[in-house]
Amino acid sequence: MGAVKKIPMRKCTGCGEMKSKKELVRVLKTVDGNIIIDLTGRQNGRGAYICRSEECLKRAMKTKAIDRSLGVAVSAEIFEELKKELGE
What we know:
The protein has one domain: YlxR-like (Hypothetical Cytosolic Protein, Chain: A, 2-Layer Sandwich), CATH 3.30.1230. Helices cover 32% and strands 25% of the residues. The protein has three helices and five strands. Strand 1 (9-11) and strand 2 form a beta hairpin.
């Protein structure tokens, strides 16, 4: 019998559901303190995950869940980038 490969699970900051890491978009606070969108999921820093739906993004913006997860205020430009990414 082969070993069963473990699928990494993360919690969406918008809806609170646990989903596989590949289904989510990662918002990252780098070591320098910059906020970026990490599509690879491999960059160093503190990450917050969000579903690929506008509803979850709106809920996360309203409750400031991403801000709390990262420990800093996230600018409107980052949310605009996320909206563009989710719109594709």
